[in-house]
Amino acid sequence: MAEPGTGAAGGGRDRAGNGTGSGGAGDDPGADPPLPQGENGVEGRAVRVGTRRSQLARIQTDSVVTILRELYPDLHFEIVAMSTTGDKILDTALSKIGEKSLFTKELENALEKNEVDLVVHSLKDLPTSLPPGFTIGAVCKRENPLDAVVFHPKNCGKTLSLLPEKSVIGTSSLRRAAQLKKKFPQLQFRDIRGNLNTRLKKLDEKEDFSAIILAAAGLKRMGWEDRIGQLLGPEDCLYAVGQGALAVEVRAKDQEILNMVSALHDTDTVLCCIAERAFMKRLLYLTGAVYSLDGSDSLKETMQTSVNYPHQNEDGPNDDVQHVGITAKSVPNQAQEAAENLGVELANLLLSKGAKHILSVARQLNDTR
């Protein structure tokens, strides 16, 4: 994810190649892959799907499994839920304990031990460099990637600009806080941890926060879209890399499972997220812009590329090429390369204009907080 440097993705594209802030409907990549078969295939046994225990994680995983059951009615899918380090440590800011693998390590351990066959994640929780032997086998169609403001009941009907001076806004994300401090310097920002249920309870039942910032996608999946008081567009806050998209992580050498989940790929979402993840990987900390922690210093650029390449039969080693941890056999490799190059080139442009210094200072300040 994009902390603590700090960054955000201003990505997405429409058919004209314009930045949109969200991925559009994907092209039909072709026929669904064949049902996994063979001596070591999955036919005739349960396919175990790993997930976090939180309510949102279960809803997201259930949605993926529902699609898989429709595609492969002869297979039995079993959901295995577990707690992760990020779920257990709730009294410390994420930026203080490091974010890589906080919400994925235990799930990846189970995947490595063959205790599960695939894992469903929020893509923004996955680092751009996955542990050896793993790959993102599917990126599902993206939900609204924007950040959303949920207001305390007493502030219902307001926007951030209408809140009283020194109103406290809760967020666990340095990315959000840095950008919003620049846009709304009259507001104060304070860390808030916990799952969506916990954070909303802290907001509603106490007077500590005037509002909190959450991902719109999570609120919608939970059925709480009516709690969204304000959507934050790119001019207010660029969303996190991969935000709104679900990723299916698998063992890179498990061809049966990899072929099975590849039916879940949404082409436009894959290409948007490859570009975003490539940008973050090159910068180490992502954004379509780079911000100091107090929002006083920033750089922001936009770049475009064409990804309209026809799908070709790419037999052989190229079938297993990964782009920033994603294996997408159903998406033209040239298009994936173009998306990855876009992210890298945008990162290089920002680095050439001084992004490295901003990130270094922000990291040092965060370490001393």
Tell me about this structure.
The chain has 369 residues and is α/β, with parallel strands linked by helices. The chain has helices at 55-71, 85-88, 94-97, 105-112, 174-183, 196-205, 216-221, 255-261, 267-283, 333-352, 355-368, and strands at 46-52, 76-82, 118-122, 134-139, 147-151, 168-170, 188-190, 211-215, 230-232, 246-251, 289-291, 298-300. Strands 2-1-3-10-4 form a five-stranded mixed sheet, sandwiched between helices. Strands 7-6-8-5-9 form a five-stranded mixed sheet, with helices on both faces. Helix 5 (174-183) links the parallel strand 6 (168-170) and strand 7. Helix 9 (267-283) runs parallel beside helix 10 (333-352).
Architecture blueprint of SSEs:
Elements: E1 46-52, H1 55-71, E2 76-82, H2 85-88, H3 94-97, H4 105-112, E3 118-122, E4 134-139, E5 147-151, E6 168-170, H5 174-183, E7 188-190, H6 196-205, E8 211-215, H7 216-221, E9 230-232, E10 246-251, H8 255-261, H9 267-283, E11 289-291, E12 298-300, H10 333-352, H11 355-368
Parallel strand pairs: 1-2, 1-3, 6-7, 6-8
Antiparallel strand pairs: 3-10, 4-10, 5-8, 5-9, 11-12
Give a nutshell description of this structure.
With 369 residues, this protein is α/β, with parallel strands linked by helices. It is 32% helix and 15% strand.
